[in-house]
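Give me the fold.
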Amino acid sequence: MPGSLRIAIVGGGIGGLTAALALRARGLDVSVFEQAEVVREIGAGVSIHPNAARLLKRIGLDDQLRKIGSPINGIALRTSHGEAITTPVGPATPAFSPDGGQGYNVHRADFLNLLFAALPNGTVALGHRCLQLKEDGDLVHLSFANGVAADADVVIGADGIRSVVQREIGLQSRPTSEGIMAYRALIPAERLAWADDLKDPALWLGSGRSFLLYPVASGRLINMVAFVPTDTESEESWSAPGELKALAAEYAGWDKPVQDTINSLDETFRWGVYDRAPLPYWSTGRITLMGDAAHPMVPHVGQGAGQSIEDAITLAVLLEGCTAVDVAGRLKLYETLRLARTSRVQALARAAGKLYRSEHENPTEKAERLREWMAQGKWVFEHDAEETARDALAKSGH
């Protein structure tokens, strides 16, 4: 795209690919550099709540999202013994989404494939592990482990919780464990006799543990996430093998659907649950961060993907029509807008995790505490990142 900024995105996950789509839609020249040699399918579900889904709709992905997603209309909460805690409520109800926006649970691999398919061939370069960045005047030089070098006017680090780009802009931060780990699995729906009745997420709570089920892949698969306490460091991996006997022992005596789910498994994967304290900054010069590279968060409000998508659209709005001399200022404006919001979401997610793990088993008491928390969290789902970015840009004078 002659005359437009050349933008290099380091990392081809959900955030990086969404940013590539949104930036290209605004006429920018974008290349994505992903360290993986091949695009591998990861067996995990991902929530795309209304704050993110409305942004994807605006870049033309609404129909595809509907095809691969299972609508979220609420969440059913139960004690470990199956007692109802509260009536279904959640981000797709009018209280949370006044514009009627719909959220979806999706299979991560389906969603990544959707994003890849929407980009022109050649946009994503696989097998490119970033080693070093060097800013020199109006350019950033990128060096990769395969010997390739590239130049860009802007570099966006979308390379995850152990970000090389974060290191290259002078930041050093360590992951913070929440003291829990998660067992994950995807179960074919036909294995569970009651799966057809599971239209929305169901969450069982008790004894410092929680057990989450929700449909993905248009109901063909059921995503399981089981959170348990741990005193040991767990891998920040979605594919480390877990022990089925250990999982079963954690949930001995729980509600029948929990037992049925565990008994149906051929395998499970364990996943260390980490976030990081908010960073002091995200941007230096022509380089910035997004997604888990900027704000990893625990998963208890389902906003990991959503906040990355908000980052992507914010960057696209602020870099559209940007000249080389304005890049640093626009990236600092992006940082100002996003760092404050994502820090609040991180804190909310941690608070939600503590509430889920609380020992209060009285359904009435827990229902009231959950209603209070949900009321406090409405601002997450109501937010319009694109509108916020446009307003901020208009006021900035850049």
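The domain at 6-174+276-396 is CATH 3.50.50.60 (FAD/NAD(P)-binding domain).
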